[in-house]
Amino acid sequence: MKTAIAMATLALLAGCQPSEPTDNSVSASVEGNRPIPVEPDGGIGDTPDVERPAPAGPLLQPISYAEFSPVVAAGLGCSFTSDDDRLLFVATAPDDRTVRAQGAVKYGGTVGVVNATKPGGYAALQQGGIFAGSDITLNIGRGAGEGVRDGDESTKWPATLTVTELSVGDRSYQGYWSCGA
Fold this sequence. Notes:
Elements: H1 2-16, E1 27-30, E2 34-37, E3 60-61, H2 65-68, E4 77-82, E5 87-92, E6 102-107, E7 110-116, H3 121-126, E8 128-132, E9 137-142, E10 148-150, E11 154-165, E12 169-180
Antiparallel strand pairs: 1-2, 3-6, 4-5, 4-12, 5-6, 6-7, 7-8, 8-9, 9-11, 10-11, 11-12
């Protein structure tokens, strides 16, 4: 009889014990025993279905002649000006299809040098293209066609400048790609 009572007591105690999670995860309960994730620091996990904004890409700063002239050779070149009339990128190249264009861009308070990823000289530069630096890449997507005359020696096209910095993300600017002497 003592054995039957002991077994019944063990069965009752076993039924009162909280069950352990079977997936080795830590969880907490809120109203109605619905488990929610608990982070290692004790904080409650993120709410599902909440969209987080993408990180802002690199913010380009206007660049002046005094800032880009020491790093970009004078001569035939192109520049990107944003819709709000800020000069954001300047590049030059000789009329030599074996040479890569070189440009200057300002971000993070400093002027960085970028080089075209493909040779082609000034003819390739006029088409836009991709420029890469040590930690930043610029992609100039120029509009099609002959462009519009801009002053005595320049032509401009609508364009998009997309800037990528691996640690920050992408940012695009709308504006104009203007080329000439």
